[in-house]
Write a structure and sequence with these properties.
The protein is α/β, with parallel strands linked by helices. Helices cover 34% and strands 27% of the residues. It has eleven helices and 14 strands. Strands 6-7-8-3-9-10 form a six-stranded mixed beta sheet, with helices on both faces. Strands 2-1-4-5 form a four-stranded antiparallel beta sheet. Helix 6 links the parallel strand 7 and strand 8. It binds adenosine-5'-triphosphate. The site of adenosine-5'-triphosphate has 13 residues, from strand 2 and helix 1.
């Protein structure tokens, strides 16, 4: 195992007219967690599929655990585990049987496979459900079983493709704990996600991907400082008064006021927390502008995108097929 567990240079991949990756560079030190953060269609899954040898890049190079993904895909596969959004769980087998089956596929002997399966079920808090068919599991339990399956062979490097997309907040929290334990044991993890908080909680380093390119990179704190602090979010009752509200709230903010006219909502980057909220209520009230909803919130991925790219994440679709 080299000190750099995952390395990629200039990866590109095009599907027909869609340029899914336009030159991605990655370097993940062994034992660390890199999060690839981006909206739907940014190219995250494509990057994971190249690094886990399921597809080849059109150009560029990548190696995992020091092994080239194109020259020696079998070598790479012997070092990695992959889990993600679409759980590779057999619905009709129990949790224990699912994990034992994976052990057998990798030629781990019967009793060793059983011991490893039981160990993982206990680590992933699935002991009580071990003998039930997986189809009776909740979404969160299924994801945990899927992740356990990726770890049967004790891989050096684990790819987690959107491991918590679609989970409720509690199951997401459980999954985060499990992933943290995994990282504590020295495994290198590349995790893709659409959630800034997830990257924040789990990752040592984050790359933000948009339309197949890396648009920002750094620690969570570094990115947050680029994104700005909290957001004051105000929904005004009367559409006609949005512009007045923007003029009133501009001076409270530390950046441009973002307006969604459709929902009559203003987002103002602020750094004074609740006092900005009190100030806003006073200013708007003074002008007789009725506030329907108001609050302070942490920046979302959408805010990060707006701040980093000047456009919202969901505006990307029409640009995806451009060929230039
Ligand atoms: P998601 O969060 O939806 O999984 P993603 O960031 O993982 O998104 P990718 O799945 O890598 O994104 O997709 C990148 C782009 O490539 C998208 O525009 C997608 O529609 C397109 N794409 C992915 N796979 C294929 C394919 N097999 N054929 C054609 N286009 C594809």
């Amino acid at each position: 195992m080299t000190d750099i567990a995952i390395e990629a240079t200039g990866l590109t991949k095009t599907y027909g007219k869609v340029r899914a990756l336009r030159g991605i560079d990655l370097s993940v030190p062994a034992g660390s967690v890199l999060s690839v953060l981006g909206p739907n269609g940014a190219g995250k899954t494509t990057a994971v599929r190249i690094l886990s040898t399921l597809i080849r890049p059109d150009s560029g190079r990548a190696s995992v655990a020091g092994i080239d993904v194109v020259a020696d895909p079998l070598g790479v596969r012997s070092k990695i585990g992959v889990a993600g959004q679409y759980a590779a769980v057999d619905e009709y087998l129990s949790g224990l049987e699912n994990l034992e089956m994976i052990g057998r596929l990798y030629h781990i002997g019967g009793s060793a496979a059983r011991t490893r399966a039981k160990e993982l079920l206990s680590e992933f808090r699935l002991e009580e459900a071990a003998d039930r068919p997986a189809k009776t599991y909740s979404g969160g339990m299924r994801r945990r079983l899927d992740l356990a399956g990726a770890l049967v062979t004790r891989p050096d490097v684990v790819f987690l493709d959107e491991p918590t997309t679609g989970l409720d907040p509690r199951s997401r929290g459980d999954m985060w704990e499990v992933i943290r334990d995994l990282v504590g044991s020295g495994t290198t993890v590349l995790l893709t996600t659409q959630y800034l908080e997830e990257a924040d909680f789990l990752a040592d380093d984050i790359v933000v991907v948009d339309q197949g390119r890396i648009i920002a990179q750094g620690t969570a704190d570094h990115l947050k400082s680029q994104v700005g602090g909290e957001r004051l979010t105000v929904t005004v009752a009367d559409e006609e008064r949005i512009d007045e509200a923007v003029a009133m709230l501009g001076p409270i903010g530390i950046g441009e006021v973002d307006v969604d006219r459709h929902t009559r909502t203003l987002n103002v980057p602020v750094d004074t927390g609740t006092s900005a909220l009190v100030d806003a209520v006073g200013r708007l009230g003074g002008q007789g502008i009725t506030v329907q909803d108001i609050g302070i919130r942490r920046p979302t991925l959408d805010d990060a995108f707006l701040s980093l790219t000047g456009h919202r994440a969901e505006d990307d679709d029409e640009d995806q097929e451009e060929s230039a």
